[in-house]
Design a protein that fits this description.
The complex is a heterodimer of chains A (277) and B (235). Chain A has 277 residues and is α/β, with parallel strands linked by helices. Chain A has 2 domains: 121 residues, Glutathione S-transferase Yfyf (Class Pi), Chain A, domain 2; 131 residues, 3-Layer(aba) Sandwich (Rossmann fold), CATH 3.40.50.1860. Chain A contains 12 helices and 8 strands. In chain A, the strands form 2 sheets. In chain A, strands 2-1-3-4 form a 4-stranded parallel sheet. In chain A, helix 8 links the parallel strand 5 and strand 6. In chain A, helix 3 packs across helix 4. The radius of gyration of chain A is 19 Å and the shape is globular. Chain B is an alpha+beta fold. Chain B has 3 domains: 74 residues, Ubiquitin-like (UB roll) (Roll), CATH 3.10.20; 83 residues, Alpha-helical ferredoxin (Fumarate Reductase Iron-sulfur Protein, Chain B, domain 2, Orthogonal Bundle), CATH 1.10.1060.10; 35 residues, no CATH class. Chain B is 36% helix and 11% strand. In chain B, strand 3 and strand 4 form a beta hairpin. The mean pLDDT of chain B is 94. The chains are: A alpha/beta (277), B alpha+beta (235). At the A-B interface, helix 3 and helix 5 of A face helix 4 of B.
């Protein structure tokens, strides 16, 4: 069994537990032993990197040190926000002067030597390859029109993008492999409003309305995301009149197709095979 | 970082300590608290049990040739030659009101009352300043991921000395958060002590009233003998 070190992040231990459980079950089915970091702290959050402060990289780099302590050169993330923050910090300390200053500040830890790569689940699945993944699919999601909503953190800034930042296809390839029909829609790479959900929910409502209408017009029956905040906004900030489209995590759809998680009734009835459960 | 070299410390004789900027010669081997008194300070605040339990004597100090700002309890730390120190008689921090009967034992309760928790940048300064050697930053992280039981467990030995709270760049009032977490844990998450509930019922039903009445009427000598012969729970 191949082993991969894993960084969960706070949301996946609290509000987005289902994403973690489904993803880990699916990865186990694919033959991977996913080992959670014995110690980890908050990724640092994407929001914190909006300020150009060295201090904001201490948290993320401390997590890279934890991976280094485990002898890993790769760390898996499921939450796209954690992926974004950790990967950007990993890039940041590629600059020797930044790395030196971070290490000098963290005198309570062994120096970070660099070289730990941060990998998102969708990249990990891409590495596994379509053929192997397709062979593992036992309940293909035939007939389901599934639209991938990338949002920001899988694509921007482009140094950490999991695919082409404007015309990504990586999630659509996954959707096809799982047997569903990928649906493209213009708003799929636009921002949901993110953290503005706290101080300016009106802006987020407007954004979510645009996204849902765009997906609805394209014929999406369900949305796929890798971000707990996008999911929250798409569900909780839906304006009146916008279509109600269920939102699921990437790991959930994967787990349905691999037969390790129940297919919810609202999805089961959309499948051409009509098979649920 | 390379370790800072600290010069060898004398075990006997006199050492020089700088208390709030003023040099004093005090005997080696004294605790900071005793050295303060030796130097003539009368301690009214910033002193308590003198046994390392109450957390009243929070102290910060530096040592010559070392950039670090150390934090410790004055009653538990011996003076070192060249030590620069200051006492922190109290730590200003606001305790937010809540109703324990209505509060939910979840991370959102901690974050709603103390949203500054989310300002943590994982700098670990809190952990480095804890005289109890608690994993303070790990407790902040457990709070952020909603694990109230873990917060309670990690902070069980917190003395509320306030040193982490004074040092925190995110300005988190740690010890108030920990107290809330432990109360939530005690009220909702800890296994219920059924034997305690039974005993409370027994007391209410008057089972021990007779014995108590007898004790009240005993003389001093009889009480002393009874105390010596009391049953002590094994360690």
């Amino acid at each position: 069994m191949e082993r991969i070190l894993y960084f969960p992040g706070c949301a996946l231990k609290d509000q987005a537990r289902g994403y973690e459980e489904a993803s880990l079950a699916a990865l186990a089915k694919l033959g991977y032993e996913v080992k959670e970091l014995p110690r980890w702290n908050c990724c640092g959050t994407v929001y914190s990197l909006a300020q150009d402060e060295l201090m904001r990289h201490v948290g993320p780099v401390r997590n890279l040190i934890r991976a280094q302590e485990e002898g890993a050169d790769e760390i898996l993330t499921l939450c796209s926000m954690c992926y974004n923050t950790l990967r950007r910090s990993a890039r940041f300390v590629e600059d020797p002067e930044s790395l030196r200053r971070i290490n000098a500040f963290m005198d309570d830890e062994p120096d970070y030597r660099g070289g730990v790569e941060v990998v998102h689940l969708v990249q990990f699945l891409e590495e596994i390859g379509v053929e192997k993944l397709a062979r593992a699919v036992v309940r293909p999601l035939h007939g389901l029109r599934l639209a991938a909503y990338y949002g920001c953190t899988l694509l921007r800034p482009k140094e950490v993008a999991v695919d082409h930042p404007d015309r990504p296809e990586i999630l659509e390839r996954l959707v096809s492999t799982l047997g569903a029909e990928p649906v493209l829609f213009p708003e799929r790479v636009e921002c949901c409003g993110a953290y503005l959900t706290v101080p300016r929910p009106d802006i987020v409502r407007e954004r979510v309305g645009e996204i849902l209408r765009s997906a609805g017009l394209a014929g999406a029956q369900a949305l796929l995301t890798a971000c707990p905040l996008c999911k929250f906004n798409l569900e909780e900030r839906r304006p009146l009149g916008a279509p109600r489209i269920p939102v699921f995590y990437v790991g959930e759809a994967l787990a349905w197709a691999l037969g390790v998680r129940e297919i919810p009734a609202e999805i089961g009835k959309l499948l051409s095979t009509g098979v649920t459960g | 970082m390379d370790e800072v070299e600290v010069k060898a410390q004398p075990k006997t004789g006199m050492v020089t300590v700088y208390i709030m900027g003023q040099a004093y010669r005090v005997p080696a081997g004294l605790t900071i608290l005793k050295a303060l008194e030796y130097a003539g300070f009368r301690l009214v605040r910033g002193v308590g049990c003198r046994g390392g339990f109450c957390g009243a004597c929070a102290t910060v100090y530096r040592l010559p040739g070392d950039y670090r700002l150390y934090a410790d309890l004055a009653c538990q730390t011996t003076v070192k030659d060249g030590m620069y120190l200051a006492m922190l008689p109290s730590t200003p921090a606001e305790r937010r009101p809540y109703d324990i009967r209505k509060a939910k034992p979840r991370g959102e309760t901690l974050l709603a009352l103390y949203p500054e928790l989310a300002r943590c940048v994982a700098c670990n300064t809190c952990t480095k300043s804890c005289p109890q050697k608690l994993e303070v930053m790990e407790a902040v992280q457990a709070a952020l991921r909603g694990d109230v039981a873990k917060v309670a467990e990690l902070t069980f030995d917190c003395l509320s000395c306030g040193l982490c709270t004074m040092r925190c760049p995110a300005e988190i009032p740690h010890y108030h958060v920990w107290q809330l977490a432990r109360r939530l844990y005690g009220a909702y998450l800890a296994p219920k002590a059924e034997h305690l509930a039974r005993r409370v019922e027994e007391i209410a039903a008057g089972k021990f009233d007779g014995e108590l009445d007898r004790l009240v009427r005993l003389g001093k000598e009889e009480l002393r003998e009874l105390y010596k012969a009391r049953e002590i729970e094994p360690e």
